[in-house]
Amino acid sequence: MKYLLFISYSNGLMHNALYENMFILHDSIIQLVEEEELDIQKEQIPILEELIQNFKNEDDFSQVLSIGTWYHIQELTERNIIKEDKKTLKIKF
After folding, report:
1. Helices (H) and strands (E) in the chain, counts
2. Which of 11, 62, 63, 73 has its CA 20 to 30 A from that of 25?
3. Under 8 Å between Cβ of 19 and 28
């Protein structure tokens, strides 16, 4: 399964990316927290297994960090893809 990660920084910048698996995505979230010099435990960043379990029960996951930056994760599914032709893949955000 592929996953979409949306990040909105407290300064107004936004970032989004497509990940091949939850392991790589989770590593990016950890990197985000470390780059912002935040404490992973204080921010209550879920461990990988918790995120995987979340997607068994929920459609998506979002969290706001203490500095106002937030992130949102969605599974890549038919509902958030627009197919134009065989060579092009567009993602609805």
Report:
1. 2, 6
2. 11
3. yes
* Residue 58: per-residue pLDDT: 85
* Contact status, residue 2 vs residue 76, Cβ threshold 8 Å: yes
Query: What tokens does 21 get?
Result: 């698996």
CA-based nearest residue to 50, from 37, 32, 69, 63 = 63
- The stretches in the chain having pLDDT less than 50 are none
Alpha helices in the chain (DSSP H): 22-35, 48-57
Give domain limits for the chain: 3-91
Picking from 40, 47, 3, the residue whose alpha carbon sits closest to that of residue 25 is 3
pTM of the model: 0.80
Closest CA to 16 of 58, 90, 72, 83: 72
Structure tokens that stand for 86 in this block: 């065989």
